Each structure stands twice: as C-alpha cells, then as structure tokens.
Amino acid sequence: MTASSSLDALYQQVILEHNRHPVGFDQLDNASLIAQGYNPVCGDHIQLGLFLDAGGRHLQKLGFDGQSCAICTASASLLCQQLHDLSIDELKILVNSFLGFIKHATPLQEPSLQPLQVFAELQRLPTRQGCAALPWETLQTTLQEFEVKHE
Amino acid sequence: MSAIPRSDSHFDVSAWRADFPALRRTVHGKPLVYFDSAATAQRPLAVLTAMDQFYRQYNANVHRGVHTLSGEATDLFEQARTRLTRHINADSEREVIFTRGSTESINLVAQAYARPKLQPGDQVLISTMEHHSNIVPWQMVCEQTGAELKIIPVLENGELDMQAVPQLLTERTKILALVHVSNAVGTINPVRQICRMARERNITTLLDGAQAMPHLAVDVQAIGCDFYSVSGHKMYGPTGIGLLYGREALLDAMPPWHGGGEMIRTVTFEKTTYNDLPAKFEAGTPNIAGAIGLGAAAAYLQSLGLEAIAEHEQHLLEHATSQLKQVSGLRIVGEARHKASVISFVIDGVHPHDLGTIVDHDGFAIRTGHHCTMPLIKRFGLPATARMSLGLYNSVAEIDAFIPVLKKARAMLV
Q: Which chain B residues have a beta carbon less than 8 Å from that of A127?
C-alpha cells in the first residue's frame, strides 16, 4: 500500500465527516453518569455521558464532549451514533468487541458495529490505536465501576 | 528577525548530513525528513564508530583490572570525561559525573544535595516551562522534606516573567532549578542574569541543559551555575548516558547517592569509606561505551564548531518561522526573542496528533503532544502542540518541502 492510500484508508471520508460534525457532541446535560477519559500520551481529554433508564440497567443514549484528535472524535461520534437503547450487558459485549477489533484485529461480527469497520487501518498503526480506543475504554471502565457498585 | 530569508547558498549542509547514516533511509517510500531532534537527535558516524570500536577492541571493565584491556578501556573512559570537562568548561574532571541522562542528574541533586538540606518552609523555585524531569524530582523532595515548590510564571510570548523573579527569590528560597533552553517552545532563558541574582542571595542553582547542549556553546563557569545537567542523546550522543556538572565544593560536601562498587574506597561490615569525586557518584559499572560515545559526540560538535552550528540553526529558525506563518490558521506557540531552533505550533481545526500522522506519511518526523511539559502547554490553554525541532543536519529545502504538506493536512481535515 502506498503512503497516500494508507493515509486515505485511515482518514476515510466517513471519519473526516464525523470529525467535522460529531454525533452526540456537547450533549451531556442531564446525563445519568459522566465518565472522564484521558490519554496521557497525547493529552486528549474527553467526557462521555451515559443516559440510563430509571432502573439503571438500560442505556438510552450516549453523549460526549472534550478536545481530541479526528480519530478519537470520529470514534466517539460513531459510538454515540451506533450504541443506544441497549441493556448494560449488551453494551459491554459491543464495547469489548470493538476494542478487540482495534487492538487484536478480531473481526467485527455485530451488525450495529459494522460502520466501525472504517477504523480497520488502525490495526496496522499501533501508535494511533489509543485514539480510537479512548471513548470505548472510557465506557468500559465506567461500566466496570458501575458493575462493582451494583453487585 | 529578518523578514526576507537568506538563501541556503551561504551554507551547504550536505557534508554534515553525510555524517548521519539514519538520514539516508526512507519512511513510507519518501526520504526521511527528521524534525524531531529535540526528542532525540540522530547520531553521527563518529559516535557510532567510537562505540563500535570500544566493543570490538577495548571492551573491559574500567578502574578494575591490571590487564591491558582494562587499562585501555579506563583511558578511553577517562579521556571522554576530560573532553566533556573542556566541552562545558568545568574546572576539573572531579566536577563531571557520568549519569544516565539529565533526568538522573536532576534526581541526584534533588536527593543527595537538596534532601539533606531542605527544612519545612524552605522553598524550591522552578518555572512553568520546565520539562517534567525538572518538576517531579523537586515535588518528590518537597514532599520528603516539607519544603514548598514555587513557580516562575511564563509570559504569553514564551519568555520567563523576569519581573516576577526578584519577589520569588526570597530568604526561604534554597534552590533555583531552571531549564536553560525550553524543549517545548525553544526559549533560551537569561541564565547568567538569573544565576547572578540567585548567587547574590546565596541560592543554589541547577540548570537543566538537556536542550541547550545541541544548540549552544555552554560554559558552566561563565554562566555561573552550581549544577548543570546534560543528556547525551539530545546532543547527538548515545541514549542512557548524560552528565551532572557540579561545583566541586558542593559535590564534595554531598553524601553519596547510590551505593555499590566503584563509589567506595574500603568496605567492611562495620564501616565503608567513600571514593573521591567523581567516582563517589558513579556506583556500579558505568555505561562505558555510552561515555565514550558521548565524548565522541562532543568532539564531533567541536569539529563542526558550535558557533557554525548555531548560525546555521538560527538561519533555519528564521526561515521556518516566516514560512510557517504563510500557512493559514497556523499559530506559533512561543515567540521569545531568544530562541533555539525548536518551534511549537498549532493549526486551527487540525489536531496535532492527526497532523503528526499525516506528515509522517510524507516522510516528516515531528513530535506532537505535550512534550513532557504539561504545565507549559496548559498555560497556553492547549491540550497539545505540534513541534518541529531543527538540528544541525536540517536544510532550508526540507523546511520548504514541509509547508505544502501542512497545507494539505489542513485542506484534508478542515
């Protein structure tokens, strides 16, 4: 693959478009939980808002905020776009699946995660995997803490 | 700063470039343009050869055996120290301690000099522009002793707020630890002036010289500091080796830091007596090849001439600064009057991390992030910057080739 086609594969139009107009951005008001995500390598900082139903076992939607690179912003945007109206258990499976896809090149099976295939090029770029992973790892950590509290 | 850049014709950098084998490689099929010397410089053949020769012909432990190789290795090791002593104009070899790098040098001073001296309520003064290596060791020693960390602010242009300095040098200030040249924004601090102010108040000074050594002729006596830290790999030497310069009277009075071989005179289970300087601070088998490589790096810089290097780099700095300003949406972070060839910048709508990846695909190696200076980058209200750091081997042509790539990145993302 040439340098420019590898770059085009990384910065696909879908990613650039989500970076310019991110879904769920600046939508944290009245969130049930706000999780902080920080990447010490680059200094990026995002906040992820979880909107849960009254019982706390069902996610209605997600929102996010913060300063981050195009890869991280697009990843957060696609996360907000694709993951809503799910049980906490379903959510955990999807989060683990995406992180496995980025870091270990595990195929993405779930239909709702198919749009995330746009990040496949990151499998060859370990230095930027953390960027796409940040919103999902933030969610993963929060879900683990949430689980501990509700056990 | 001249508005019209001089042409590159006054100086041909190709002979210098030829000394650096790594510059011949390609990245993503494009010639490597290495703009990340502030993170670590490339090494000239002179350094690689010196280290290779040591391992091939002279390899033995130093200051130990009576056999020929041990004697030769010791000579090479101590010749390197002598060369470095002259390179920074220390008074004697007793003042030049080999360490793992600037970070270890600063930790040595914090633990072996400051920790026994500091009392609760004493103050250690640093600045907003410090590298984490000149922040964290002082935070640790303040926590251990009850001393307080005070900070010299930085102005919007990236210079130290010199007006704030006199009030910050109080009766309680025991140590001033300051970066000589900022690795993040290139500012050259007025260290002679500040060291004089500190000396008048009986305050001990440490300068973090990691980023100064590749750009400036450093004379520790003319500067008038008490301690000066050096990293080998920033000045075209190997990684894992550096120096601590300390005034002999201070080093002499300090207790050892690490215990082990080399740093002792006699050991019994009842009592150990310590070796003289500089061995007192060099416990264990040292990084012999690294020290020899660092000596070779100093010799290499001397052979080119630090004034010639500085002149070339200042020309690059002026040219790059004026060219970068042609890129719409680009803002240079830190425009001090006295700068080394290190330029931090941001482009509206382009996150530095994305920029770093995009330009890498055209062969340009730049650093993006907080450059281990989080308080400074935060002071500018930013999460990160892109940094272009220019070394002796960079050329005007490389800078000119960089500008369209920056414009392409902006067109792609905005």
A: 357
